Amino acid sequence: xxxxxxxxxxxxxxxxxxxxxxxxxxxxxxxxxxxxxxxxxxxxxxxxxxxxxxxxxxxxxxxxxxxxxxxxxxxxxxxxxxxxxxxxxxxxxxxxxxxxxxxxxxxxxxxxxxxxxxxxxxxxxxxxxxxxxxxxxxxxxxxxxxxxxxxxxxxxxxxxxxxxxxxxxxxxxxxxxxxxxxxxxx
Length: 186
What we know:
Elements (H helix, E strand, L loop, with lengths): L29 E3 L11 E3 L6 H16 L2 E7 L9 E4 L2 E8 L5 E6 L3 E7 L6 H11 L8 H8 L17 H7 L8
Parallel strand pairs: 2-7, 3-5
Antiparallel strand pairs: 1-2, 3-6, 4-5, 6-7
């Protein structure tokens, strides 16, 4: 069955199967888990085109509102976005924005008073293949990996550079080869 033949259930986003290159500017590329229970770690994924929240969030909120109802609040990683306001008016509704320095690759969307959806955020510069793999993993109910691990495992992001080895780093064997004294293990 092709994606266009798949039945559309109210409250669920249709799976269009489109790639990032096929999406026109100003549209949201979102994939939500299309089941009636919410057993997975993540509820879906979002692939914004930039780190400009003012340009990206309206399309996401509009798409979600159409399928799940009004969005009242969005929690964002402060380090992942350029200038973050505390609220935006989207489709004639005020949407409150919370920002936290979490660095976990997610966005938390609140519908109503307490209904939360956790979306994996695909980095804008991810390749289409990596983004598709990360989106597919994010909606699997049997995938318990955290968002950061999905992004790493699918190649949608690269690991942060680790600290450079210092003179006291490494094993006792490496210390012996280099002529420095090994620190006792704790």
